[in-house]
């Protein structure tokens, strides 16, 4: 334990925690999206999937604890790295030029908090139901369709998932570098791979509110 805490106290240790927890959270989001895409299979399929999860409370709550822990560690380590970087350079550069840094990289520090705010709203909206206009416990399909039928709500979900896609793109890119899997010869493919996975997740999540708004799912 002492060795682990000592390693975490270094910048490399914190970056490793950010990378590992980020990868775990990405896999969770991917599984979550695949489950929710059963919306396109109709109410019986999606509600049956939700009922199956509710029938395994120990498994579900155990997984929720792991996700919450990973999320907390991810935020903590990222915040500590940010403050550490500020401390290393208290006086900003008079002229700052970014080399090989794209939009997703430059927006990481504020896209993370915005995604967190959206997550809290999402939980209150479709899990707890306290901010849902017409929540019906157990009828997940109806809750989703009713929610996304309101274009402001659908717009929030679409915008949040676009932002999440940018956040994940840089996170996946950095994951390879932190774990020592980067090489100049393969950076182009690493960039393509990061974009592909980020677009896959963002597109899958955005497809649901778009389908409801378009009337493909009702």
Descriptive report:
The protein is built from 9 helices and no strands. It has a single domain (2-214), classed as 3 helical TM bundles of succinate and fumarate reductases (Up-down Bundle), CATH 1.20.1300. The mean pLDDT is 86. Helix 2 packs across helix 8, helix 6 crosses helix 8 and helix 8 (151-178) packs antiparallel against helix 9 (187-214). It has 218 residues and is mainly α.
Task: Write a compact overview of the structure shown.
This protein is mainly α. The chain has helices at residues 2-8, 11-36, 43-54, 57-88, 103-106, 108-128, 140-148, 151-178, 187-214.
Helices and strands in order, then pairings?
Layout: H1 2-8, H2 11-36, H3 43-54, H4 57-88, H5 103-106, H6 108-128, H7 140-148, H8 151-178, H9 187-214
Helix pairs in contact: 2-4, 2-8, 6-8, 8-9
Helical residue percent band:
over 70%
SSE arrangement, N to C: HHHHHHHHH
User: Main β-sheet: number of strands, strand sense, barrel status?
Assistant: none
- Main structural class: mainly alpha
Q: Can you tell me the residue ranges where pLDDT is under 50 for at least 5 consecutive residues?
A: none
Average pLDDT confidence is: 86
Query: Could you tell me the radius of gyration in angstroms?
Result: 19 Å
Total beta strands: 0
- Oligomerization state of this entry? single chain
Give the DSSP E fraction (strand runs of 2 or more residues).
under 5%
The CATH architecture would be: Up-down Bundle
CATH class: Mainly Alpha
Helix count equals 9
Number of domains: 1
